[in-house]
Design a protein that fits this description.
Elements: E1 5-6, E2 13-14, H1 17-27, H2 29-37, E3 42-43, E4 50-51, H3 54-62
Antiparallel strand pairs: 1-2, 3-4
């Protein structure tokens, strides 16, 4: 089927890459981590996602930062 992915370890077929990745992460965590980190020099300390460059990691990490809060309106004395 177009777009389907198969687990290389247990040969289960999934409808797309996201399902296959979730399966690999849950059922084969050591294999998943080794494959995810292969060739990566920069890893997010929040979610462990690997990146090939520092700028890519920094762009990604901005998504983990809490959004800045608006200052509270001042009240009259």
């Amino acid at each position: 089927r177009p777009g389907s992915r198969r687990c290389g370890r247990c040969l289960i077929t999934f409808p797309d890459a996201a399902f296959a990745a979730r399966h690999a992460k849950r059922q084969h965590p050591r294999d998943f981590a080794a494959a995810a980190l292969r060739g990566a020099l920069f890893v997010c300390f929040v979610c462990a996602r690997p990146f090939a460059s520092s700028p890519a990691l920094l762009r990604h990490q901005r998504g983990h930062a809490p959004s800045p809060k608006k200052p509270a309106p001042k009240t009259a004395p």
